[in-house]
Design a protein that fits this description.
Helix content is about 30%, strand content about 20%. By secondary structure, it is an alpha+beta fold.
C-alpha cells in the first residue's frame, strides 16, 4: 500500500522526475547542446543580438521582413510521397514572410545575398506545417558549434571596431566547410526581386507514404518568374525589394513550384552544408501562389514563430543537429521579442489604431 507520508509522496514522484530528466537530456542531445562546449540557444541569440543594430520587439535574425498571403495547392504526385493532409487537400490558404538576413530591421535590401521565405500551412483537420527556407543552396556549417564560431568571429573587436582576422582564420581551420559558404556569399548573383528568388530548405525531412514507405527529402520553392540580376541603382535603394513586390503583386499573383529532391543512398542526411547532386530525383509537389503583401508591423506574420519542427503527420524531422538548433534558437528569439512587446519596449512603429506593434 502506498505511503501517505510526504516522504512516500516524494518517492512516488521520483520515477516521473527521472523520466522528465531523461527526456530533457535527449532533447538537449538532439539539439546539439551537450558536448558542444557550453553552446546553448541563449548563447546563439546573444551573439545574434550583438552582431548588428538589434531593435526590441524584432526577431534576433532576419529582422527585416514583409508578410504575405496566398494559397498552397498540392500536385497529384504529392499524395504518393506522403500522407500529410497538406498533400491531399485541394487548396490551402497560407500566410508567410519574406525576410533579409540582418538583425537590423532597417538594413538596406542589397546588404546581404541571403533572403528568406517562411510559410504557415494549416490544413482543414487542424494540423500545421511551418516551412522556413533561405536563398542559399547549402548551410554555412555542418554543426551548430561551427555556425556559432562563425558568428562570434564576425563580431567587432572592441579595440578596432572590426572583426579580428585571426579569429576567422582559426574558425576556417576548424570548420573548413564554412569557406565554401563564404565563397558562395561573395560571388552569388542577387536577383532584382523576391518574386524571382529561389528559396531552399537545406535540412532533410522524412516523408512517409500510405504504404509506410519512407523517403528523405529536401524541398525548395522555385519561382516561375525568370531571374534578373539586381542593378546598382536597386542596390542603392534600401527598400527596393518591398516596393518591387507590391508593384508585381498589383499586376497579379506570384508563383513558385515546391519541389522535393529525393536522397539516394550515401547522401548526407544530417549535414546541411553539403548539397545533394543535381542528378537526384525531383518531384514537384505543390504550387505556392502569393496574392498580397503587407508590412510586418501590423501583418499576420509578425507574431508567428516559423519553427521548422512544427510538422504534420506524414512529415518528420531528420536528426540534422542544425535543424534542431534552429528550432531551439527560434523559440528563444520569439520569447525575447514577445516579452519586449508585452513590456511596451517594442521598436515597431505605432499603427493607425494607436497600438505599438
Amino acid at each position: 500500500m502506498p505511503s501517505s507520508t510526504p516522504r512516500g509522496s516524494m518517492l512516488l514522484l521520483l520515477p516521473i522526475a527521472l523520466i522528465l530528466a531523461v527526456a530533457a537530456a535527449l532533447f538537449a542531445w538532439v539539439g546539439g547542446w551537450l558536448g558542444g562546449h557550453g553552446l546553448t540557444p541563449q548563447n546563439m541569440m546573444d551573439t545574434a543580438e550583438a552582431s548588428g543594430k538589434q531593435q526590441p520587439g524584432f526577431r534576433r535574425a532576419h529582422s527585416k521582413g514583409i508578410c504575405f498571403a496566398g494559397t498552397f495547392a498540392p500536385t497529384a504526385e504529392a499524395a504518393k510521397l506522403s500522407t500529410a493532409r497538406a498533400f491531399s487537400q485541394p487548396s490551402i490558404a497560407v500566410i508567410g514572410r519574406f525576410s533579409a538576413s540582418s538583425n537590423n530591421p532597417y538594413a538596406p535590401d542589397g546588404a546581404s545575398p541571403v533572403r528568406g521565405m517562411a510559410v504557415q500551412i494549416k490544413t482543414d483537420d487542424g494540423q500545421e506545417w511551418r516551412v522556413a527556407m533561405n536563398s542559399f543552396p547549402f548551410f554555412a556549417s555542418s554543426t551548430p558549434q561551427g555556425f556559432q564560431a562563425l558568428n562570434e568571429a564576425g563580431l567587432p573587436d572592441p579595440a578596432t571596431g572590426k572583426p579580428d582576422p585571426s579569429k576567422m582564420k582559426a574558425v576556417l581551420a576548424a570548420h573548413p566547410e564554412i569557406a565554401t559558404f563564404l565563397a558562395w556569399a561573395k560571388s552569388a548573383p542577387r536577383s532584382d526581386s523576391l518574386g524571382n528568388t529561389r528559396f531552399n530548405g537545406v535540412n532533410a525531412f522524412r516523408l512517409t507514404d500510405a504504404q509506410g514507405g519512407q523517403r528523405m527529402v529536401r524541398w525548395s520553392m522555385r519561382p516561375r518568374t525568370p531571374f534578373a540580376a539586381m542593378t546598382a541603382e536597386q542596390a542603392a535603394d534600401p527598400n527596393f525589394l518591398s516596393q518591387d513586390l507590391n508593384i508585381r503583386l498589383a499586376a497579379g499573383p506570384l508563383l513558385w513550384d515546391m519541389v522535393v529532391q529525393i536522397a539516394a543512398p550515401g547522401d548526407p542526411i544530417t549535414d546541411p552544408s553539403k548539397a545533394w547532386p543535381d542528378t537526384r530525383q525531383e518531384v514537384t509537389i505543390a504550387t505556392l501562389s502569393i496574392q498580397r503583401a503587407e508590412a510586418q508591423a501590423d501583418g499576420p506574420c509578425r507574431d508567428l514563430n516559423f519553427d521548422p519542427l512544427i510538422l504534420p503527420t506524414g512529415i518528420a524531422a531528420s536528426d540534422d543537429p542544425i535543424l534542431h538548433a534552429r528550432s531551439a534558437a527560434y523559440s528563444v528569439s520569439f520569447n525575447r521579442r514577445e516579452h519586449e512587446i508585452s513590456q511596451g519596449k517594442s521598436a515597431y512603429p505605432t499603427s493607425q489604431n494607436g497600438s505599438a506593434r
